[in-house]
Amino acid sequence: MNKQEIIQRLHAQYTQFCEVVQNLSSEAFIFHHEGKWSAAQQLDHLIRSVRPVVLGLSLPSFLLRLVFGRAKHASRDYDTLVKTYQDALAKGGKSPKAYEPNVPKEGFQSFGSERLIQMIAGLDRLLESLSEADLDTLQAPHPLLGKLTLRELMYFTIYHAEHHQRNVEMGLAQSH
To answer: What is the DSSP letter of 1?
Structure first.
């Protein structure tokens, strides 16, 4: 995927996730099975997960390079990165404490969705300022997958919304 395709996929996937969440009744939004996250918590988790990506990409390229070094591997393609993440989850990988969701308060369904879409729009703008080469040479840490090129981090960010949307939909299907 080139930069423009990444930007389009980010926008489309997060918009779709937020539409699913927005179309839930208030009861369905907060419903969860024992030990599983509600749609509200899935939304909070995505906000918590996207925030450091936006923060990291807000840094000047030279600072990213200084702090995290240059990538020592070529960017993996989308499917390979997704499989790597799924394998890590299958081996017991879990969300670090900092990314675990709170039980959101009243009004979060609308406010949280709006916030997440704004964050993705900001991420899209930051991506516009990077070159294709930057996406493959700059890297940043992922709590479960280690250092990823920025392209791989964007692939993860796209898939992450898809993954949590599927969790929302499966949780709702199981409730009927």
So the answer is: -
